[in-house]
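Internal tracking record. Fields below are filled automatically when a chain is submitted to the structure queue. Please do not edit lines marked as system-generated. If the sequence contains nonstandard residues, flag them in the REMARKS field before resubmitting.
Queue: standard
Priority: normal
Entity type: single polypeptide chain
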Amino acid sequence: MRFATRQDAPALAGVQRASWQAAFRGLLSDEYLDGLDHEALTKTWEGLLTGFGGPLAGTLIAERADRAVGYSRFYPTDDEDDDSTQVGMIGSLYTPPDVWGTGVGKALATAVLDAMTAAGYAEATLWVLEGNTRARTFYERNGWHHDGAVVVDRSDVPPVTKVRYRKNLNR
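SYSTEM-GENERATED OUTPUT FOLLOWS
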C-alpha cells in the first residue's frame, strides 16, 4: 500500500473500469458500464491526483507484483449532518474481480482507515448502492454499520438509492 501519484492514473482507471463493470452489473445500466472509457477515466484520475490531497485527503493504491489491485480515496465528509473536521469519508474502495476474496480489499480497508486515523478523523463514513449486497456484506463483516441515512442520487440514469455506513475510528 502507498499513496497514489499522478503517474498512477492509468492503473487506477483500469482498476475502476474492471471493478465497476463487475460490481455494478445489474445495478447500473449495461450501456453505461460498457461505455466506461479508459482514457476518460485516466484524465479524471490525473485531475484528482494533481489537485486533491493534503493532510486530510488522499488516494491509496494497493499493488501486487507491480500491478495495481485496488484503490481507496478519502477526504473530509461533505455530508451536511456531519462535522468535516471529525468525520472523513471514503469516497471509493475498489478492487478488480480477479482479486475478490483474496484479502486485498480487507488490507486496503485497514490501510485507508489507518490513514484516516493518522489524519485526525474520529469517524469514517461511506455510501454504498442499496442493492450492492456484496459490498454491504463486506463492510458489515468489517465492523461498519448502516447509520440509517439514505439518499437518492439523481446524477445517474435511472436514479440510484445509496445507504450510508459509519465506523468509529477510535479502535
